[in-house]
Amino acid sequence: MTQYTLPVRREPRSAAAQTVYTVASGDLRLSANVKCWPTQQGLEADFTAAVEGLGWAVERGHGVDPVTGHGFIDSQRAGIEVFKTLPAEAPLVVVEAVWQYSHHVLAGLRTHRGPILVVANWAGDFPGLVGLLNLTASLTKAGVEYSALWSADFTDEWAKAKLAEWLETGRIEHDLSHVRALPALDESAPEVALGRALAVELREEKAIIGVFDEGCMGMYNAIIDDEMLNPLGIYKERLSQSALLAEMARVSDAEADAAFAWLEDAGLTFHFGTDEATELTRAQVQSQLKMYIAAVRISDDYGLDAVGIQYQQGLKDMVPASDLAEGLLNNVERPPVRSRDDERELYPGAALPHFNEVDEGVAVDALVTNRIWNAMGLDPANTLHDIRWGEEYGGEFVWVFEISGSVPASHNGGYDKSYSMRQPPMFFPLGGGTLSGVSKPGEIVWSRVFVMDGRLHVDLGRGSVRELPAEETQRRLDATDPQWPIMHAVLHGVSRDQLMARHKANHAQVAYAPDAATADRALLAKAALFAELGLDVHLCGDLDI
């Protein structure tokens, strides 16, 4: 009889009674993990104290790597190996004080059979809240049950009560009363007719989104399968970032110089220095403007309606950041780009929507928003932001919406109210400038397209951007990333904890309207368009629909 070598089945480890097991998903970039490790240790100590105060024990599921000096799971393989050692039925907590790559732990969480909790500290200086929102959104897409919790240090009564709830029941129930299904729409409303007509046009005429490599930073939730996109009339053009590099090499210095001169004439301030390692230099910006021109030309080559650049692994080691290019693409007014033969201006007088970090939920949203806002005669410039952090100010909760790139200058009030600073070396070793500023006060529509229960959904809400005193703005910038564009957002009828409990992404999409009434009409058109396309539409907060 033929003998085969059969795999040895690993016997499950037994869980200790009244014990919570913890893991920490980290970045793929060693520099980020090393810098963030002390903050992570502080959060884990706070969380452990809270659990022990409720009569439970905590056992960390993996140790500190003596070579790297940190205790993060920093690759998918490392995560798979860690989960092999964990009791499959045990209560498991993913503790996050940092941005993390969700796919590092997704394989283990998909097959874990015990209750899962994701926690983060309520702080702006390290983006643990952003990491939590990405991981929970990824788990939602994967169909994995979980609970989530956030606190400054897990000593407040609300957080302790929610933690006790999870330890006792394996679940946390959050208040989601701000969310409701889209009701029947008024057939006579012109916005409803507009939204439906644009949906029919998109489905019949079709649109192409250009994806420069998929799956940025482990954002599993940001990948939408073709089988979901194609029925909407949206198709992917899969592009390689090596092609972007090749096209950048074809852009002349004179063309980049002309774009730079245009930006200087428009009033954009560049905070230049001389140290390439820590400061913004003219050479870095020159490369970024070549990327901008290259991205527009490639978009024209393929007839793209929107484009997304995955500036992280790989590209970050080759060229400066993509953020300046992204912000320029999202603005109607931008340096003109001509065809290679100089016969045509490409996308003249129009924004070319860019979906930062190739987030395809953003791609769908940006494409739809661009068409509705253009049809209504509004500025179509729209962008994503990280839901970074926030605090009370002036009797209301004011969010810090912040992102490294893609914010259009019009959101800041124009190029003369915008500036460019060097990206933090921890994340951007080759530097490059931002397109930064403080978002102007006004009315916004916010939204998110996401995957849940095997279907496409969208959350829609309204908000206002506040103008805070300069010293408060600077305090918030210093508490997060002072180089990045910031929006002081107040969401109508949605509390801090409601947004955190419900939102299915680290990103929120925002677009301005000139006044509240126009914003309400634009949101109605957007709801009608998405409903006509077959998405499950959810209204969030105070909306008169």
How many helices? The count is: 15
Radius of gyration, CA atoms, in whole angstroms: 23 Å
Q: What is the helical fraction, as a range of percent?
A: 25-40%
Strand order of the largest sheet: 11-12-16-15-14-17
Q: Please indicate the percent range of residues in DSSP E strands (runs of 2 or more).
A: 15-25%
Quick check: average pLDDT? 96
Span between termini: 73 Å
Number of domains: 2
- Let me know the largest β-sheet: 6 strands, antiparallel, barrel
Contiguous runs where pLDDT drops below 50 for at least 5 residues: none
Written overview of the protein:
There is one protein chain. A 6-stranded antiparallel barrel has the order 11-12-16-15-14-17, surrounded by 4 helices. Strands 2-1-3-4-5 form a 5-stranded parallel β-sheet. A 3-stranded parallel β-sheet has the order 8-7-10, with helices on both faces. The chain has 15 helices and 18 strands. It has 2 domains: 19-169, Rossmann fold (3-Layer(aba) Sandwich); 190-540, L-fucose Isomerase, Chain A, domain 2, CATH 3.40.275. It has 545 residues and is of the alpha/beta class.
Gist of the model:
The protein is an alpha/beta fold. The protein has 15 helices and 18 strands.
Per-chain topology:
Layout: E1 19-23, H1 30-53, E2 57-60, H2 76-84, E3 92-96, H3 103-111, E4 116-121, H4 128-142, E5 147-151, H5 157-169, E6 179-181, H6 190-205, E7 207-212, H7 226-229, E8 234-239, H8 241-250, H9 253-266, E9 269-270, H10 282-302, E10 306-309, H11 323-329, H12 360-375, E11 382-393, E12 396-402, E13 419-420, E14 442-452, E15 455-465, H13 470-478, E16 486-491, H14 496-502, E17 507-513, H15 516-533, E18 536-540
Parallel strand pairs: 1-2, 1-3, 3-4, 4-5, 7-8, 7-10, 9-13, 15-18
Antiparallel strand pairs: 6-18, 11-12, 11-17, 12-16, 14-15, 14-17, 15-16
Helix pairs in contact: 2-3, 6-15, 8-10, 9-10, 10-11, 12-15
